[in-house]
């Protein structure tokens, strides 16, 4: 299990509350800064997630840690009956609601403040559940995954997109320089929250990935787990079933 990394080391708040506070703080410029930091490649990764989810022909989709709704908006192309975007940060959701309204999709996509570890849904509700760059922010990773398994239908699919660490030279060394130096510097220059992007890089570097994360999924209710590294291993797409 990875160690617990919190955004604000001097704060007495728990990780969950700190993560909500951090994303509220950076919600206004998160989308633009995210495009710069990822060089736009994150859009390509999300398209792969949508493609995988689409194979299940889902009618009810839950997007956990939906943030400003990028993935939820992209999955509307699958023509489901309903997409629920769940996030702990009201600030991020407010930005997402504006984007959804602009796209005339407010009847299709519902944005909801909620805790991934205690979700207000019945067992076996969703045909597909997605999490993009969110599981590393769970306060209790195993509890969150168990809760995902609870609300996913037996025939449903879980697709997770998360940062990972390249293992081969020179990408391993280059990625460490990028996350430890470039990402925090850009974050501090353009974000009013000076520690947010240091936390995001630190949490990315320490989070279990590949087989290690597959093992966590398997311990907490999932089978048929697969992982597919993308862009030299700087991110990984996981698929799993109950």
TrEMBL record:
Recorded metabolic or biological pathway in which this protein acts: Quinol/quinone metabolism; menaquinone biosynthesis; menaquinol from 1,4-dihydroxy-2-naphthoate: step 2/2
Name under which the protein is recorded: Demethylmenaquinone methyltransferase
Mark the transmembrane ranges. none
* Entries under Pfam families matching the protein: Ubie_methyltran
* Species for this entry: Polaribacter marinus
Tell me which Gene Ontology terms the entry assigns under biological process.
menaquinone biosynthetic process; methylation
Q: Does the keyword Methyltransferase apply?
A: yes
Q: Does the keyword S-adenosyl-L-methionine apply?
A: yes
Q: What is the lineage of its organism?
A: Bacteria, Pseudomonadati, Bacteroidota, Flavobacteriia, Flavobacteriales
Q: Which residues form the signal peptide?
A: none
